[in-house]
Request: fold
Amino acid sequence: MARTDDDSWDITESVGATALGVAWSRAQEQNTECPLFTDPYAQMFVDAAVERGWQLPPAHVVERIRAIGGYAASRTKWFDEFFIAAGANGIDQAVILAAGLDARAWRLPWIDGTVVYEIDQPRVLTFKVDTLRRSEAQPTAKYVPVPIDLRDDWPRALRDAGFDPSEPTAWAAEGLLPYLPASGQDLLFERIHELSARGSRVGVESFGAGFFDPEYLASGREKMREYRRQAGLEGDDDAFDVQDLWYVEERTEVTDWLADHGWDVTSVSAADLMDRYGRCAAGEPDETTPRTVFVEGQRTC
Reply:
């Protein structure tokens, strides 16, 4: 599963398979006593992938996904609220970067006239659209898929699809940045900045220095090995480890980059966000709480 500069994937492969894991986690949230959001489409994606021969994650991966279920639910809720707030402030153009199996274009209460652009690998978006069409699901906004790799000239493809850079935009980068090299992350934000009119907003799940700390990453790998041992899979050299898909490199802090480019920035740590939603004690994250920060920026000039 080693990454290369020109790799691509279907929904059941490499980075695409991580989107299925997220969909499975969102489907599980519906079975909790008090779900943070409603996503009736997540299970549809999982079922459609199984029909294509995809197997549910092995027991040790399922256990890991369950362990961070509170985090995943909190992350989904935060981005839901980000888009709803953007709409309440009159923004009717949204771009979801590396959209995966995000179904917000179908399940959120968008304001009239909203256009939602989704950028991702062509085969990933095809799988999503085909699955939703089979169920006759209708988007709640005008939905425009933009099938292109984020390493290619996606700004041109976005404009060609009808995007208007003179209008304020709500941008979302959820579960994306570790899959880009540090230089690719900088380029991503440079392009967002160039395409953002005054009043635009961006929501980011940020992975900074603490997340890529070698000891922290090593502890994560050890936890996965423990899950494999518990599942009776010791010695499985081909076991899936999402860290193999990341670019573990020193990179610019998102808050600093946005502030340096004239964006007003607010942020909240994963632990505090989970406390806000009742998913962990304030300031007391356990070992499964990712060291991420949720960043919102607004362009004011």
Remarks:
- The mean pLDDT is 89.
